[in-house]
Amino acid sequence: MKRLPIPDDVTGDEIDKDVRQELQSLPKGLAEEVSRNLVMVARLIDEDPEAAYAYSRIALRLASRVAAVREAAGFAAYANQKFSEALAEFRAARRMTGSVELWPVMADCERGLGRPEKALEMAGAPEVQKLDKASQVEMRLVAAGARRDMDQLDAAIVTLQSPELASNSVQPWSARLRYAYADALLAAGREGEAREWFAKAVESDKDGSTDASDRLAEMDGVEFVDAFVEDDDDEEGERAQVAVSEEADTEVPADDEDDVDDDGDDAEIAGVATDDVDDDLADDDLQDAEDDDLVAEDEDEDDSKGDAPQRPQS
Fold it and tell me: Which residue from 104, 186, 116, 107 is spatially nearest to 153, judged by alpha carbons?
């Protein structure tokens, strides 16, 4: 089996205590290798889902009978929108543990597979009552998403209206719940209310898990400019100005009379030199003409004595 490189600082001890306990059923060396691959899945699943998926497949081949491994493989597939594969892994993990905590993400896989009706059916199942508060809120988000998949915007808005949404206390789910409610309101054309809830989402989104601030700025007509791009433009403008200035410096200033006089003197000197060359050329031409006359006279004399050899044509 082909292995993927794992940094030396990854020991496998970084995983959750419950997962580490599950891996104790494996031989020590194998348990360490599986745990290190699971650590890589957790590290990469947000920034590089494809790499996380690759590590999850290795862990799955090494320990497919460990529920934590099946769950990790499911989340890695889910992050890569491999919903059918993710659903299969989540179902396997649920069979092994009997837990219902994966119920909301399983329902969302049904949405991903284009089966929103199935997701709504799961939202009304008895398993939802066994979920903790955070998972129940997650199930509500999935159900609202399913309603929107079916173009039932008003129903999606009503689905999200809950005591958790109305509460002023900030909980781990508050930002995502408020954001989903604002987004549904905006989709329904209720822009004023949507802006209000995007603002509430910003207030509760301490770790930047949503882009609520960007959505709010967009509604307010605020446009963000990249400072680095602006600096680059300024530098290009300055370089262009310097180039223009240098080009202007090469022209003769109107008030530099000394340079103009020097140029005039140079022109006069050049004119005199040209006249001298012309005179020399005229004298040379006169001398050449006289020499030709002498040659012609000599040839006439030779002709009088007999035929002279023909001069080759040039």
Answer: 186
Q: What residue spans of the chain are helical by DSSP H?
A: 17-22, 28-44, 49-62, 67-79, 83-97, 103-112, 116-123, 133-149, 153-160, 163-166, 174-187, 191-204, 212-219, 227-249, 257-305
In tens, the pLDDT along 147-187 reads 999 999 999 999 999 999 999 999 999 999 999 999 999 99
Measured between alpha carbons, how far is 95 from 24 in angstroms, rounded to an integer? Answer: 20
Say what the pTM is.
0.70
- Burial level of 153, CB count in 10 A (0-12/13-18/19+)? middle
Query: Do the Cβ atoms of 200 and 177 come closer than 8 Å?
Result: no
* HSE-CB for 111 with a 13 A CA cutoff: 22
Sequential DSSP letters for 108-170: HHHHHTT-HHHHHHHHTSGGGGGS-HHHHHHHHHHHHHHHHHTT-HHHHHHHH-SHHHH--S-
